[in-house]
Write a structure and sequence with these properties.
Oligomer: single chain
Largest sheet: 5 strands, parallel
Radius of gyration: 17 Å
Distance between the termini: 11 Å
Order of helices and strands: EHEEEHEHEEHHHHHH
Number of helices: 9
């Protein structure tokens, strides 16, 4: 096996970077990828380059095209939140009616069509990375020493139909709920730790959209 099987994950911020490095990288190596690299999307204001956050599709597209310009790259995928994704991104203004899974798949297809490179497999987390933290309810509860927290997170998941479906807007999205439920919550530390402790198998068993995306990446790693 040679270095030609290189997968790159372009991610939205520090939480996604930690999850990619601490949870997904080893799993993807085992799935057949020789090299797995990760970077946080760059956002530039005048002469200053910042990392993290996605305020416009143009910034994401510029980064994607830059990465695809690397001949050593076998495949490029992304970890961005569907919740709050830029309104000017392909597919966002034409969301179909129906389940959230149908909507996020629509946007992913439109993004892929806007960057027609067979190596590019766009992926948006349904609805945001904190959905994965909801899946890790027991792990987060244990880390914080708050047994009642797991019950509260599971109740939200049950009411929504699963962790990926916990979403209700600017005040009730998973990240907003965690800030209300967890005093002093440190999203870039506690969330990724809980998700890493849950593990890939535990996460994919509760999150169908994550499972479908990971299965595609695993399949590519065996070719």
């Amino acid at each position: 096996m040679t270095d030609r099987k290189r997968l790159h994950l372009l991610v939205e911020g520090q939480s996604e970077l930690t999850v990619a490095q601490e949870l997904l990288a080893d799993h993807l190596h085992e799935a057949g990828w020789t090299t797995v690299t990760v970077s946080v999307v760059r956002t530039q204001t005048s002469s200053i380059t910042h990392r993290g956050g996605v305020s416009s599709w143009a910034k994401i597209r510029r980064e994607v095209q830059h990465l695809l310009g690397q001949k050593s790259l076998t495949a490029l995928t992304t970890i961005f939140d569907f919740y709050g994704f830029p309104a000017d991104a392909p597919g966002v203004s034409s969301l179909p009616a129906g389940p959230a899974a149908r909507q996020v798949e629509h946007v992913e297809r439109e993004i892929a069509a806007a960057v027609p490179d067979r190596r590019f497999l766009p992926h948006l987390v349904l609805h945001e990375l904190e959905s994965w933290v909801f899946a890790a309810a027991d792990q987060l509860s244990g880390l914080r020493g708050e047994p009642e927290l797991a019950e509260r997170l599971r109740a939200d998941c049950d009411a929504a139909g699963g962790p990926e479906l916990v979403n209700g807007g600017a005040k009730t999205a998973p990240s907003k709920r965690l800030l209300r439920y967890c005093t002093g919550y440190q999203k870039v530390i506690e969330g990724p730790l809980a998700v890493a402790e849950l593990g890939v198998a535990g996460l994919r068993s509760q999150c169908p959209h994550f499972d479908a995306w990971l299965s595609k990446i695993e399949e590519l790693g065996t070719k």
